[in-house]
Amino acid sequence: MAVSVKQFKTESDSWWCPGCGDFAVLASMQKALADLGLEPHNVALVAGIGCSGKIGNYVNSYNFHVTHGRALPAAMGVKLANRNLTVLAAGGDGDGYGIGVGHLTHAIRRNINVTYVVMDNQVYGLTKGQNSPTSDLGFQTKVSLKSIEKPARPALSALSLGATFVAQGFSSDVKQLTRLIKEGVQHQGFSLINVFSPCVTYNAINTYDWFREQLANLDDLDEESGRDVTDKGAAMNMLREYDGWVRGLIYRDPDSVPYEERIVGYSDESLSQADLSLSDELWSKIVSEQQ
After folding, report:
1. Are 133 and 144 in contact (CB under 8 A)?
2. pLDDT, tens digit, 9 for 90 and up, residues 99-117
3. pTM of structure
């Protein structure tokens, strides 16, 4: 029986502001999971702190709401404990690229099979509008001074760290974003999907129209455009040329092998079902391969 989007909806009332880009991210995620034919009980979503972190309340699946910046270590733990679950992590630019950036670095390095969806609105929305790691130089709100720091460019940083799947979407394009999330989930390894998701309440600068203008140069990088999405060097050069303002599938490593596939003796079963005892033979094999 086909899986419907309705199966991934909850009865919780949203408290996002009307017009928030996160609504579209939620719709894209729900549709992507349904299109992939996944059952809600086979999906786990770990969400961080902030407005975007509330997305877990609205997706009918296993949901773990963690502290600021800790979505990825929790998501990686879930995946390693039960490799049969489809695991996603979600959060905002402050959560993922600020306090959680250290965890992002190691998630990329390890290449665990987790899909990370980051809602990037270039501001801390939940705490009323402070500068975030992706705020532009000179960015200012009523509660913060002008930013004197250069903004983070998540896609470029992820590629430089060795990410095997990098994409960027825009919340106003649900069709493309749905496709990117699907491809991220299907990818064998860690997937970063940065989503430009405007804050309509505390960011009057980076509006929908502002993002559209920034993304006007290259707004369709999917394989249909003829790009070789497996060419990492070309992807890096493109991101540098446009200062990160592109959307679509930026890079995918076709030879990616997820972390859990490289663990000697790692069981196909979840920890609740697996025999965790190590034989002398297996222990000797683990030690020898690590020397």
Report:
1. no
2. 889 999 999 999 999 999 9
3. 0.91
- Tell the residue number behind the tokens 């086979």, with chain if given: 42
Half-sphere exposure in the Cβ direction for 96 (13 Å, CA): 35
| DSSP class per residue in 229-251 | TT-HHHHHHHHHHTTT-B-EEEE
Q: Are strands 165-170 and 248-252 parallel, antiparallel or unpaired?
A: antiparallel
Helix axis angle for 174-186 and 22-35, nearest 10°, is: 50
Q: Would you state the structure tokens that stand for residue 131, as one six-digit string?
A: 């500068």
C-alpha to C-alpha distance for 275 and 250, rounded to whole angstroms: 40
What does the pLDDT look like over 145-161, one tens digit per residue? 888 889 989 999 999 99
Question: How deeply is 114 buried, as exposed, middle or buried, from its count of CB atoms within 10 A (0-12, 13-18, 19+)?
Answer: buried
Rounded CA separation 57/263 (Å) = 33
